[in-house]
Amino acid sequence: MAARKQYLLRVDPALWAEVERWAADELRSVNAQVEYILRDAVRRRRGDRAAGDAATGGGRAGGPSGRSRKS
Fold this sequence. Notes:
This protein has three helices and no strands. By secondary structure, it is mostly helical. The chain has a domain of 44 residues. It starts with 12 loop residues before the first helix and ends in a 15-residue tail after the last helix.
């Protein structure tokens, strides 16, 4: 199994409670739910073309997405 990055996250208690409820509804741990949310956000930001890359960690990690930023 690949090494996983640990990251301390400070979250508003009300937001944390929402994520806990959401995770319970989806039968996931809170950590798995946060990963799901982040992967979905990355997929949406990049567009569906990179959905597999975001989920598996493939592709050009840390490289430019090839899309221009909106000003």
